[in-house]
Design brief:
The complex is a heterodimer of chains A (120) and B (163). Chain A has 120 residues and is mainly beta. In chain A, 3% of the residues lie in helices and 45% in strands. In chain A, a hairpin with a 2-residue loop joins strand 6 and strand 7. Classes of the chains: A mainly beta (120), B alpha+beta (163).
Chain lengths: 120, 163
């Protein structure tokens, strides 16, 4: 699935189907998650949006513990050089280097990331 | 700047520098390397001083971790060791490098649009004019003031000198 930049509103939302939405620069090939009108690598405005069924690796995470709430984990995952920040579906059993996949969208707009192979 | 007593106090901007990195934190290969790591050394170099040689360091502090990153950017601690500096050194007016002598915005909360100017910069002016009362750094003549914007996206540094 690949769309023009103007359709990013439709593509960003693909998280709900387990896909990772991202931008691709048509000039230099740079891929980035947060949608921007210009490529942050070469400043070209020739940017497309797309979404893929991919798995990444968890490169960092932290667990937030608050009174009267279940622990919440946020993490950064590397999808082949494409770095994505998201809420984790679980705060337990996480480890740097483990495989993760997109498992939905959080209320903040970030993707929900789940350990690959684990059902949400 | 005029005091309530009516006497004037002059403070000069000795140097100024700013640096920007629009990328979100998670896209940066080195998350601990912030724009402050460029603007602070640049301003300090232009003023011909080092962080350990100024009388006062005022650091924008929306969150505690910002202070740690700025302490590192100022060269007071090596990268990733700002917490250790805070553990082993006093930030108070009597210390060798007083930092955020009014407690910064972590103490005063974050007044909208006035955190940098009203809390951080204002304290530097009070100190350089000798009006900080019990918080006064004795003989304060040089102050480094750093402000952060975005989520560690922008950093602006000035070095101030009292007359």
């Amino acid at each position: 699935m690949s769309r023009a930049a103007g359709d990013r509103g439709e593509v960003y939302g693909a998280e709900r189907s387990g896909l990772l939405p991202y931008c691709v620069c048509n000039m230099c090939g740079h891929r980035f998650f947060l949608p921007r009108a210009h490529c942050p690598a070469c400043l070209s405005s020739d940017v497309s949006v797309t979404a893929s069924d991919v798995t990444g690796k968890l490169v960092a995470f932290t667990v937030i513990r608050r009174v009267f709430s279940e622990p919440v984990a946020v993490g950064i995952a590397d999808f082949g050089g494409l770095l994505v920040h998201g809420n984790m579906t679980t705060a337990e059993g996480l480890a740097v280097g483990m495989e993760v996949r997109v498992a939905g969208a959080s209320t903040s707009g970030s993707p929900l990331l789940a350990p690959a192979g684990r059902t949400t | 700047m005029s005091s309530s007593a009516g006497s004037d106090c002059s403070v000069s901007i000795l140097s100024y520098s700013e640096a920007h990195d629009p990328r979100p934190l998670f896209e940066r290969p080195e998350m601990l390397k912030t724009p402050a790591h460029r603007s602070i050394p640049s301003a300090m170099s232009a003023a011909g001083v080092s962080a350990g040689k100024v009388d006062l360091v005022m650091l924008y502090d929306a969150f505690t971790t910002m202070v740690m990153l700025e302490v590192e950017a100022a060269g007071l601690a090596e990268r990733g060791k700002g917490w250790k500096y805070a553990e082993e050194n006093s930030f108070g007016p009597e210390s060798s490098t007083p930092i955020n002598t009014n407690g910064g915005t972590l103490n005063t909360t974050q007044p909208a649009f006035m955190s940098g100017g009203g809390v951080i910069l204002h304290e530097a002016l009070e100190q350089l004019c000798g009006r900080a009362g019990r918080r006064q750094v004795k003989g304060a003549q040089r102050a480094m003031v750093n402000a952060i914007g975005g989520i560690m996206n922008h950093s602006t540094t000035i070095v101030l000198g009292g007359v």
